[in-house]
Automatic annotation (TrEMBL), chain A:
Protein name (record): Protein fixA
Lineage: Bacteria, Pseudomonadati, Verrucomicrobiota, Methylacidiphilae, Methylacidiphilales
GO molecular function, one term: electron transfer activity
Signal peptide interval: none
SUPFAM superfamilies in the record: Adenine nucleotide alpha hydrolases-like
UniProt entry tagged with the keyword Signal: no
Superkingdom, taxonomy of origin: Bacteria
Keyword entries, A-Z: Electron transport, Transport
TM segment ranges: none
Record bears the keyword Transport: yes
InterPro entries documented for this protein: ETF_a/b_N, ETF_b, ETF_beta_N, Rossmann-like_a/b/a_fold
Pfam families: ETF (PF01012)
Length: 279, 345
């Protein structure tokens, strides 16, 4: 069984600060990490490897620095890593990204048939959750989004049974390989990297492909040109309330009755509901 | 100066909203979007279309009537057994065909798991732009384009994204961002029953069952007039019972920040913020919450924000309407007594 995991390198957004005066992002010194949601996908793939001895390929599109994210994935136990990197990809939106990734997957499939593609639920920078479905559509793979649990795989019959999250509950869905699943963040966190894998990852070659390696000839489909969305302005959100009007004093009960009076005065319907509910 | 649109693009007219339903119940975000679509349509001088898919004609008819009451001028219905449960393939095929036939210039969907799946699939087939998780939508009348604004970098910045040279312009919008309009059952609208031929055998993926989530905390949180939010300042899980008692007295619900969910003090469904829910209660009371931007983006739409924190310099006070400095272990029990007194008056 051959499983490909799509991973993206992202800035650690918990460490991003916005310049208080200019409202621009201060990226300097912000570490780049493997998208946390992709770790859940990687762990699911490693579980398949445990059971089926699957071959795991990790694929990423990004600048050359993204090699670090792929090496991280190798240290957890992925077998092969490919970085799709080319100036021509710069400025890609999700439509252009899924085009490029789909081309690379086609290439990978030509020498090692792909059974399952895993993607994360979303990234923590672009945060759209659109790339996984886009890739599946371009390749004609069965698309299973927000998969919570893979219940069963019958590799001989190419059948798969999953639980996927919907707004009102869980859908029990049967489908077929090859398919693309986007994996929900769950309770199973990523395993520790084993020492042999860490040593292997440090030395293992990460294949770097440019657009020609991925068989992309038409540059009108990638990068800025291939991106229908255009980023207009970027600005800091306005603070429309605050600073808060402080209710001051030493007697908590007094403070609270002032507060409750204020709230009930502004929202008589809330007061009404409170009084009615109890009667 | 008026920019003239490529004639290929100016064929596209009207604003569509995909009406999301599961088990015959419409997701409130669909009505929120119809309300917003009506405002945008006025600017553009076009009609609002609602798209309703389903497996049962009666259910679809009821939903279509509601859609008209909430602001749709035209409802495009497709009813087929293949559309009984949500599946990406038939729904995508259906929506792509409708868009190709009727050419709306804007297509809006909820940023829910169902509609995100559908929106990304449809945008890929139509090769058009899709802006995710928007919190504001406006029209630039110069070129009739949709300006879709979304938070980036966890909400510390906003960016406006345009889809200039492609149609339709697609966007998903988070639930709770726009208010639900008042339905008007006297409104008139047109219903178009679209006949599409489906070959069920071509759909490989089958829905075998559905396990409903009996626990609808997240729905109650969206609808509550009063929400009490708890943060790391609560120190331990058991202290949430104080918030629960207060919430019960006020007819409200309890929510919280991400750290308290991660610590297991509160169910994940009750997380408020960037990676949780957007809520719009009348009153939000933030208890032991510092006011990180990732939390604030989820409470921006509240009527009044009250902050209770023992640190007078906590950032939350800069973003709240009313503040009380104090230890929650004193303030919340006092508030419970005050409300109880009111009730027994
Ligand atoms: C602030 C900001 C806002 C943006 N808004 C939009 C928007 O509204 N619409 C739009 O079309 N584009 C948008 N973009 C561009 C978009 O982020 C990029 O196209 C990006 O390459 C992929 O999208 P994503 O980060 O949203 O990934 P998601 O779709 O959230 O990623 C889902 C999964 O797809 C896989 N994946 C995603 N990217 C890669 C990759 N480069 N290599 C390998 N696997 C990958 C991973 O498994 C990931 O978990 C935005 C970018 C930024 C920085
Ligand atoms: C990608 C990403 C996504 C995120 N998404 C979310 C999200 O969706 N929602 C979310 O909430 N966060 C989210 N976060 C986390 C966010 O950045 C903050 O870390 C978080 O909101 C802080 O939670 P807190 O206010 O509960 O805790 P803290 O920041 O630790 O604040 C605790 C507060 O309690 C006060 N306090 C302490 N003791 C008392 C007492 N006895 N009485 C009264 N007050 C007291 C303290 O003064 C302090 O202000 C996200 C972060 C990242 C990086």
């Amino acid at each position: 069984m051959h499983v490909v995991i799509l991973v993206k390198q992202v800035p650690d957004s918990s460490q991003i600060r916005v310049h208080p005066q200019t409202g621009t992002i201060m990226r300097q010194g912000v570490p780049a990490i493997l998208n946390p949601y992709d770790l859940f996908a990687l762990e699911k793939a490693l579980e398949l490897k445990d059971v089926y001895g699957s071959f795991l390929t990790v694929l990423s599109m990004g600048p050359l620095q993204a090699e670090a994210a792929l090496r991280k994935a190798l240290s957890y136990g992925a077998d092969e890593a490919i970085l799709l990197s080319d100036r021509a990809f710069a400025g890609s939106d999700t439509l252009a990204t899924s085009y490029a990734l789909a081309a690379a997957l086609r290439k990978i499939d030509s020498y090692r048939k792909i059974d399952i593609v895993f993607a994360g639920k979303q990234t923590i920078d672009g945060d759209t959750g659109q790339v996984g479905p886009g890739v599946a559509r371009r390749l004609g793979l069965q698309l299973l989004t927000y998969v919570q649990e893979i219940k069963h795989i019958d590799y001989e019959k190419k059948k798969v049974l999953v639980h996927r999250k919907s707004e009102k509950g869980i859908q029990v869905v049967s489908s077929q390989l090859p398919c693309l699943m986007t994996i929900l963040d769950g309770n199973s966190s990523i395993r520790y990297a084993s020492l042999p894998n860490m040593i292997r990852a440090a030395k293992a070659p990460v294949k770097i492909w440019n657009r020609m390696d991925a068989g992309i000839e038409d540059i009108s489909k990638i990068g800025l040109k291939g991106s229908p969305t255009v980023v207009g302005k970027v600005f800091a959100p306005q603070n429309t309330r605050g600073p808060a009007e402080m209710i001051e004093g030493d007697e908590p009960e007094l403070l609270c009755s002032i507060l409750i009076e204020k709230l009930f005065e502004k929202y008589p319907e809330v007061e009404k509901e409170v009084l009615q509910q109890v009667r | 100066k008026k920019v003239s649109l490529d004639p290929r693009l100016s064929e596209y007219r009207g604003i569509w909203v995909f009406i999301e339903q599961e088990e015959a119940k419409v997701h409130p975000v669909s009505w929120e979007l119809l309300g917003k679509a009506c405002v945008l349509a006025k600017f553009l001088g076009v009609d609002v279309g609602a798209v309703v898919f389903g497996g049962n004609q009666e259910v679809v008819d009821t939903i279509s009537k509601d859609a008209i009451a909430y602001g749709a001028d035209i409802v495009y219905q497709v009813v087929d057994p293949s559309l009984a449960d949500y599946r990406s393939d038939p729904f995508t095929e259906c929506l792509v065909q409708l868009v190709k036939k009727y050419k709306p210039e804007i297509l809006l969907l909820g940023a829910t798991s169902l509609s995100r799946d559908l929106a990304s699939s449809v945008a890929t087939f139509l090769e058009t732009g899709l802006t995710a998780d928007c919190t504001e939508l406006t029209i630039n009348l110069e070129n009739r384009s949709l300006e879709a604004t979304r938070p980036t970098f966890g909400g510390s910045l906003l960016c406006t994204i345009l889809t200039l040279n492609y149609r339709p312009q697609m966007a998903t919008v988070r639930p709770g961002v726009f208010p639900i309009p008042l339905p008007n059952t006297d409104r008139k609208g047109m219903i178009i029953r679209e006949q599409l031929q489906f070959n069920e055998a071509s759909f490989v993926t089958k829905v075998l069952g559905f396990i409903p989530d009996p626990y609808k905390a997240s729905e109650r949180l969206s609808q509550a007039d009063v929400v009490i939010g708890g943060g790391r300042g609560l120190k331990q899980a058991s202290h949430f019972s104080l918030l629960r008692e207060l919430a019960m007295l006020l007819g409200g619900e309890v929510g919280g920040t991400r750290p308290v969910v991660q610590a297991g003090w509160l169910e994940a469904e009750r997380q408020i913020g960037q990676t949780g829910k957007t809520i719009r209660p009348k009153v939000y009371i933030a208890v032991g919450i510092s006011g990180a931007v990732q939390h604030r983006v989820g409470i921006e739409k509240a009527g009044t924000i009250v902050a209770i924190n023992n640190d007078p310099n906590a950032p939350i006070f800069d973003y709240a309407d009313i503040g009380i400095v104090g230890d929650f272990l004193e303030v919340i029990p006092a508030m419970i007594r005050v409300v109880k007194n009111k009730i027994s008056l």
